[in-house]
Design brief:
GO terms for molecular function: ATP binding. This is ATP-binding protein. InterPro entries: Anti-sigma-factor_SerPK (IPR050267), HATPase_C_sf (IPR036890), HATPase_dom (IPR003594). Keywords: ATP-binding, Kinase, Nucleotide-binding, Serine/threonine-protein kinase, Transferase. The chain is of the alpha+beta class. The protein has one domain: Histidine kinase-like ATPase, C-terminal domain (Heat Shock Protein 90, 2-Layer Sandwich). The termini are far apart.
Length: 130
């Protein structure tokens, strides 16, 4: 009799909601890309930084970051969980604003992105990289 195959563990890091969280998330993503032999991690670092920054500024509680491949050697997915109920939205372009363009930029660089609620409260904001 063969033992059942176990699903691979998804690389995960739990971050405190501090201004250091985006830097730690970028380093975490860069390490995963290096493990997978992916040389260009620029867009991935930008995406995880934006999602973690939003969770830090607008969410609640610890921030959970998961980085994984959707399929065998397929596109990389980034998920950022937080306990906040608010949902990120792309704002209309405001040339005078000093912030608020991150999601718009991110949305143009990824294959897809979205938000889904968690059963226990909070949300997961995700992005699938090209």
């Amino acid at each position: 009799m063969t033992a059942p195959a176990l699903a691979p563990e998804v690389p995960t890091i739990v971050l405190e909601p501090t201004d250091d969280a985006p830097r730690r998330a970028r380093r975490f993503l860069a390490e995963r890309f290096a493990e997978w032999g992916i040389d260009d991690d620029y867009v991935g670092r930008l995406v995880v930084c934006e999602l973690v920054t939003n969770a830090y500024r607008h969410g609640e509680g610890p921030i959970v970051v998961r980085v994984f491949r959707d399929e065998s050697d397929g596109p990389v997915a980034v998920e950022v969980w937080d306990a906040g109920e608010g949902r990120p939205v792309i704002r209309a372009a405001d040339q005078a604003a000093t912030s608020g363009r991150g999601l718009l930029l991110m949305a143009q660089l990824v294959q897809a992105w979205g938000v889904r609620p968690l059963n226990e409260g909070g949300k997961v904001t995700w992005a699938r990289l090209r």
